[in-house]
Amino acid sequence: MPHLTRRTTLALFAAAPLAALSGTARAASHAMTHEVAIEGFAFAPDDLTIGVGDTVVFTNRDGAPHTATASDGSFDTGRLNRGDSVSLTFEAEGTFDYICQFHRAMKGKITVS
Ligand SMILES: [Cu+2]
């Protein structure tokens, strides 16, 4: 059965050139990719710590559409239908709470350190 996957890469948090450069250098040597599944109206894991330059892939495994939308507006996957994935690369340190825009009781957190 065809499996439709949307892949989008967003560079978040345009930083000062020097910070961006060091972030890129670190990303080249240590960047990791982490998976967050959206399943059963929950993010799994719902609390994730990653490194600067790492990528998080959000994949919706529910029949219902979901989003992962930062509470501070710093990122938004947009609507993810069943099987859709979006990759987000985090280029700056911080703690980012996010929700699903359609089901606001769904909450998650990503810490970039
Ligand atoms: Cu949802």
Describe the structure using short key phrases:
1 helix, globular, 113 residues, 5-stranded mixed sheet, disordered N terminus, single chain, 9 strands, 4-stranded mixed sheet, binds copper (II) ion, Immunoglobulin-like, mainly beta
Question: How many strand units?
Answer: 9
Q: What would you report as the Rg, rounded to the nearest angstrom?
A: 14 Å
Strand order of the largest sheet: 1-7-5-2-3
Structure classification: mainly beta
The description of the largest β-sheet is:
5 strands, mixed
Mean pLDDT: 84
Which ligands, by name, code or SMILES, are bound? copper (II) ion
CATH class label: Mainly Beta
- Percent helix: 10-25%
CATH superfamily: Cupredoxins -  blue copper proteins
What is the CATH topology descriptor? Immunoglobulin-like
Note down, in words, how this protein is organized.
The protein is mainly β and 113 residues long. The chain has a single domain (9-112), classed as Sandwich (Immunoglobulin-like), CATH 2.60.40. The protein is 12% helix and 35% strand. The chain has 1 helix and 9 strands; from the N terminus they run βαββββββββ. The chain has one helix at 17-30, and strands spanning 9-11, 33-38, 43-44, 47-50, 55-60, 69-70, 85-89, 94-99, 107-112. The strands form 2 sheets. A 5-stranded mixed beta sheet has the order 1-7-5-2-3, with no helix packed on it. A 4-stranded mixed beta sheet has the order 4-9-8-6, with no helix packed on it. A hairpin with a 4-residue loop joins strand 2 and strand 3 (43-44). The longest helix has 14 residues, at 17-30. It is globular, with a radius of gyration of 14 Å. Residues 1-5 and 11-27 have low confidence and may be disordered. The chain binds copper (II) ion. Copper (II) ion is lined by residues 66, 100, 102-103, 106.
